[in-house]
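A favour, since you know our structure tokens better than I do. What I am after is a single protein written out in full by you. Could you add the entry underneath, on a fresh line?


***
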Amino acid sequence: MLNTLNLNQLRVFHTVAKILSFTRAAECLNLTQPGISKHIKELEECYGTRLFDRLGKKVVLTQAGEVLFQATGAMFEILAQSGNRIRDLKNLQYGVLKIGASMTIGTYLLPNLLATFKTAYPCVEIVTDISHSHLIEKQVLNNSLEIGIVGHQPENRSLSTTLFRKDILLLVVSNKHPWALRKKPVSLVELSDQTFLLSREGSGTRDNILSFLAGSHITLHHAMEFGTTEGVKRAVEANLGISILSRHVVAKELASKTLRKISMEGPPLVRTFYLIHHRDRYLSAAARSFIKIADKRYA
């Protein structure tokens, strides 16, 4: 039965039931009266019962008609609310932004971006996940997150990848380290014998460091895994070892001189942050607006 119904028939019925006049319903809907009668007849045939009684010139609902009128009233109210919510989504008066970022980006760059977004669109709920780049990539792929910002270029072709911004990685040591006052650039070979602190596996920073060193045929003989990027930074500060970290991660510590930046031989170590989303997913207005804010801030 439901397969034979259409929304137009129910709208015609609801209008007639509301004003109890075929003639006035035809005027309201810009239809002919015979057209109105045809729609009502089709509905009555569909349900197998009369929906209206014609008492002279009066039209009244039957009990079946009253049941259907209550149902169509609720249905059109839901459709109206849905339309309002869709308009609110487009105008960012409603909605959710689901975004993830790798540790460095999520801790040191994302909060200011989200603060700007929230000021511009206070009615949009923000859901975030800060994790290692590979985990963010997986969540974007399974649609748990709409967009992600990661520290490596994903290989999965289901992901759309856009360059977000460049980042400079710095060799840093504690102000108590023997290299703290060193002026001469450190050679890559010298890194081999230092206690070198790394984030756990899956970190974009770790991947970039190891890839860079492997490309120069450097092996770390005394590597120590220290969990998160923040943990690595604190461990370097405590003089447990040295590391290479994003300039964003160590900016405050360099300014307060609890960490020292050490020059390395060769060109600066630069990596790229990437903004990713599922290639087959339509980006919401909230996601598109966030990307515009990010592009404007880091243009």
